[in-house]
Amino acid sequence: MQKIHTRLTMLSSLLLFMLLLSACSGNANNSRNVTSAADSKDNVQTSAPSSSPSAETFASGKTRKFTDSKGREVEIPVNPQKIVYVGSDPGDLLVLGVKPIGASLTVIASQVAYPELLEGIEDVGYPSSPEKILSLNPDLIIFSDWDEKLLEPLSSIAPTVVIGEGDTYVRLRQIADVLGKQDIAEQKIADYETDAASVKEQLKLKLKSGETATVFLQLGKTLYVMGHQGISVSLYDMLGFTPNPKVQELINQGERFSEISEEVLPSYSGDVVFVLGDKTNETSSALDGLLNSAIWKSIPAVKNGQMYYADSKWNFDDLLTRTRLLEELPKLMAK
Q: What pTM did the predictor assign?
């Protein structure tokens, strides 16, 4: 039995991330709704100033130097007004109360758990179209994508800063630094950790020390196992599950996910198994076959009733998604 391990194409990778990283908001305690101010349309402000913000901002001298995750020193506006986001986690901006004027929505718009917050954002395509971005006249481009060949053309349109592929907090703090929203970011992180502790307490009867957990994603006819990416981040970092040893190998190798065959499922399965999938006919058919297979039914977690199914929209690990997931997890794990 051989593990099929491939780096997916850019498009399928983005699709994979959006299917596992979706969006979540929670009510971790009954006294207040964890759906923060950033989750409300009234509190997510679209940057849409008057005429030519780039020219006005730079002419006024209101700029500063910023060193991005690639070590590039970029002169950026102190108060950017027309932001374009290129990447798969627009929730990183939305949780800070910032709505970009454009974003890479071609793949993820129908997949995230916060579709209502995408209203009014122009889709710049995936791969992103420099022509479309140019037409939006941005004064700042936030780039969080793998396709670095876009950097040069985008940088000729507006100051472009690269955000690294770090974990939730690292990305959020980088973007907050770019936007001057550091205080908001720290407050969101603190709120999340408080609410996450409450959810963990709710689930304590379901959680056993040292238990391993694995996340499988069915995407069309293809089956994946997740590393430290998407919903796995919440399971390992927040709930305290341990990765299955073979999943830990992926994580140690820096691999975020791996395509696998059905035959190797048992070797990747943890004490608890989470399965994600979208609502397409192809995925539904493949999932039905998987869940009714002899191999699947032989997995100890399945035999012990420790298997949970979730919509693939929960597979994003931006803080907006993770916050909304806090409300979903107790319902999911109660089934």
A: 0.81
